[in-house]
Amino acid sequence: MSTVSLHKQGRIGVIAVDHPPVNAISQAVREGIITQINAANADDHIAAIVLIAKGRTFMAGADITEFGLPPKSPGFPQVIDALEQSPKPVIAAIHGTALGGGLELALACHFRIAHEGAKLGLPEVTLGIIPGAQGTQRLPRLVGLPLALDMIVSGKPITAQKAHQAGLVDGLVKGEADALPRAAIAYADKIISDGTAPRRLSQMEVAQNGSEADLLAKARADATKKMRGMLAPQKAIDALEAALTLPFEDGAAKERSILIACMASPQSKALQHAFFAERKAARLPKHAQNATPRPFNQIGIIGGGTMGCGIALACLGAGLYVTMIERDAEALKRARNSIHKSLDENLARGRIDKAAHTTQEALFSITTDMTALSKADIIIEAVFEKMEVKKSIFRDLDKVAKKGAILATNTSYLNVDDIASVTGRPADILGLHFFSPANIMKLLEVVEAKKTAPDVLATAMLLAKKIRKIAVIARVCHGFIGNRMLEGYLREAGLLMLEGAAPQQIDKAIRDFGYPMGPLQMIDMAGMDIGYMLRKQFPASRFDPNAYRVMNRLVEMDRKGQKTGAGIYRYEAGNRTPLPDSAVDKITEEEAQKAGITRRTISDEEIIDRCILSLVNEGARILEDRIAMRASDIDVTYLYGYGFPRWRGGPMFYASQRGLDKICDRIKQFGETVGTRWWTPAPLLQKLAQEGKTFTDFDAE
Predict the structure, then answer these.
(1) Where are the domains of the chain?
(2) Is residue 624 annotated as a catalytic residue, yes or no?
(3) 104 flagged as catalytic
(4) pLDDT class for 37, splitting at 50, 70, 90?
(5) Cα three-residue angle 481-523-497, rounded to 5 degrees
(6) pLDDT digits (tens, 9 = 90+) for 578-598
(7) Which of these is catalytic: 84, 124, 278, 487?
């Protein structure tokens, strides 16, 4: 079967792209479109042309398998030119998604119609580049500068309805998706009957009313604030400005030069790494690749606190039945009210419609009777982080749960093998480490225990996909991937504070690196008492007591963070803005003196390196221990769960870009200045550095 075919329907030539799964615009598709456009224009019996795609979507974008490779002929601009310069009207018929190059192809057509369920967008900035097939020049000519700015700078797609209202598409097709081909033929027939000439966007001007300079300035300011540190959004605004000030051909040349510069930038490489890493993370290990997931529709959740309710909301949103267990009537009432309040808020804010609200409320039930979980397919325990509590619950579940039910613990640190050992079904048990709030945070660490069955692991990954989580598989160790690495990051923040850096300096340095908040802000937000209680369960060999001297003092003064109005920072009533506190400075000086530490001036560079390189070094140890399958899985964990700046690619990619030899040297420097207990390069890191390799090379081996 041909990738791109041409058939006639009356006086209409229909060019159909059939390149599953998403009709990516590969070399074969590009060549096929040009061939069939030329054939249709050479056929005197064809008066108009419809460009359509088979399968579940219109052309969803460029072929990602060609990323980073030398360009293959014909190039994208040649396809764009062939469509726009066609003497016969060309109508793009869009369903599914028209993203990136797919939308640019549609913009090169003279007219567009879309199925009501379609989405259209130019998401290139999320890959560190800008639209490169004249999309920045055509889109503002069609829909105006405000919408073009919003779509291109944010990278977010819009609905077919909004596209129709804005004039991006000329017709909206309702009903089943198979109505689109008929509607496209009818639209093309009308174009012929009306004698409508091809409308070439390159020959149009951008509508202007004198507010354009202000719009551009606001867009730059918004991008600086919302997409802090990112290069591509600002460059996209430069390209859109060219659409206002330059003739089309000159604007297109400007767009091309900006695209080439963006493609060569470290940010585009990092963002494209993140894109591919997310997809690799979804792959099952070899021993589970042929496993058939167990069917599931009913979810049990034990614990109706913030985490349990978040997990419930995520499952309800995916259309799953949820039965929640709470310990007593008072806790049950709080949890029920929390769920209903969240659903009401989702309705009020337009996140769900009335029908979905009604459905989700009907899917939810809550009780104090554990036997209500007897029919659940997957049961998730989400109670306090204490081993004996969790073991007690799993003993009870072993008696209640049906045969074949999957039992999951939401532990953040504890040994899943130990929890599984108290049951008679260890093969059915694994960890599902959600991040709070679980209905919003995207990351899910799926923790494979020693005896977890392959089909249980496959089912957990399918559940993650169904509830729209980015899942990363980890194996059992203290803290798994994310929290094991986090200990070093927070340790260094605590030590830096003791050694002379002010909390606000530490947090600002990490924010300037690209994090949404600094480590000490994060501790205040989460609550210092949580770490305080966890440390009491750990041996002293696992952490540096000096790092937590100040925090321990603060907790014992009932300064636990935002929730008590004071922690490392102080907070004014009703305001979460962290404010410096001289009382904390005094405590820090006292604790430094007790520890025999001479305080000094510390540079922002040292703050960044000690916090970030602690992640890298522990990440290398995690790979050595085979806790993570890939370095890129560690990157995904930190991008989606811990706020690591996406445009830096993740801690392991960042280290590779910087040079592992340089990372090793810097770690050794810290070993000389602050001690070798924590600052000795991991053997894997040292080996890769000596061989001139990267963590990407490690993943490929």
Answers:
(1) 4-263, 295-476, 487-602
(2) no
(3) yes
(4) very high
(5) 105
(6) 999 999 999 999 999 999 999
(7) 124
